[in-house]
Amino acid sequence: MDELRVLIVDDDPAIIRLLDAVLRSAGVSSVAHVTTADKALAQAEAADIVLLDHQLPDHDGVDVLRSLRDRPESPSVVMITAHGNEALAAESLRRGADDYLVKDGTLPSLLPKVLERVRRERALKRALHEAEAELVQAERRAAMGEMTVTLHHEINNPLMAASAEVDLLLTGGEALSDAQREGLTEIRVALGRIRDIVKRIGSLRDARSASYAGDLRMIELGSATSSSPGLPGVARGVALLYLPDESVARVAALLVRQAGWSVRRCHAASEVPALAANGNVSLVIFASTRDLPDAGLPPAGNRGYQVIAFGADDVMERATHADLVVRVPFDPAVLGKELRELGLKA
């Protein structure tokens, strides 16, 4: 389990001791606790997950939840309610709580499971931000490609004509003064520099920037030929991806590309079997459901590609044709490692 910072908010010493013991036995070493809502709001910024009692001496726990959700960087919140307060638990979920636990005999066994699920959801959200940033970068690279065509068309031809005219003046035999010859030579050098810059822009593959003149930024042309960081120089073929949840699909597509596959998205489950039969498809990723746990794909011995099934716990046992089963929410770091291992077996 990744290192989590957990804040316990409860005024009952016995509950605090119980939660602390369960957390530490589950491998969580960074545990703090406070007894009031005001202290919780003051210290929540330093926590990843808040275990929040709904009855506090100074404020209601739901009010604390509302205040935390109004913050731009909010920790995950697990409400802890007394037995019989299921209505309050439902209200907490509507107001943005990640989960809830009841103060009864199931709490010690359920807390590690809830904590692990919330941790995976947090990791998935972070990976979604990375996927969105990667999408922005792809759009910027596409825009740079269009800009390169424009530069070559609008600048390169007149630049070559100007350079030719300067060369003719310098070698044409006309009587030029020393000052004129020196000026034309400087113009030729300047035109050569512009030509080299246009050439470097033409090979630009990544929009890396550096500071220039205070707060201004400029693209570094010196790194024009470098490839995007983190992408391996491996080509594993095409990965066919059908995941209706757009957030999950973005993260999965990013991880698959980082593992060396190119990604082709499907828009309907019915497309998967026929497209998977294409000879260049080496990986198929699909959403497993109760009605279609294996997406209509053949067993491993009757296909030339590997299969990854995504789904909830209650349907994954039926995805028997999958080489890898991913339970949603998933940990992107773990999935990235599994994809690299799967690629090595291909």
Strand content is: 15-25%
How are strands sequenced across the largest beta sheet? 2-1-3-4-5
| Structural class category | alpha/beta
How many structural units, i.e. domains? 3
Features:
12 strands, flat, 346 residues, Rossmann fold, single chain, 5-stranded parallel sheet, 3 domains, Helix Hairpins, 18% strand, 47% helix, alpha/beta
What is the secondary structure topology, with strand pairs?
Blueprint: E1 5-9, H1 13-25, E2 30-34, H2 37-43, E3 49-53, H3 61-69, E4 76-82, H4 86-94, E5 99-103, H5 107-171, H6 178-202, E6 209-212, E7 216-219, E8 238-242, H7 246-258, E9 262-265, H8 272-276, E10 281-287, E11 306-311, H9 313-316, E12 324-327, H10 332-345
Parallel strand pairs: 1-2, 1-3, 3-4, 4-5, 8-9, 8-10, 10-11, 11-12
Antiparallel strand pairs: 6-7
In short:
With 346 residues, the chain is of the alpha/beta class. Helix content is 47%, strand content 18%.
Describe this structure in words.
With 346 residues, the chain is of the alpha/beta class. The chain has helices at residues 13-25, 37-43, 61-69, 86-94, 107-171, 178-202, 246-258, 272-276, 313-316, 332-345, and strands at residues 5-9, 30-34, 49-53, 76-82, 99-103, 209-212, 216-219, 238-242, 262-265, 281-287, 306-311, 324-327. It has a five-stranded parallel beta sheet with strand order 2-1-3-4-5, with helices on both faces. It has a five-stranded parallel beta sheet with strand order 9-8-10-11-12. The protein folds into three domains: 5-104, Response regulator (Rossmann fold), CATH 3.40.50; 134-223, Helix Hairpins (Orthogonal Bundle), CATH 1.10.287; 238-345, 3-Layer(aba) Sandwich (Rossmann fold), CATH 3.40.50.2300.
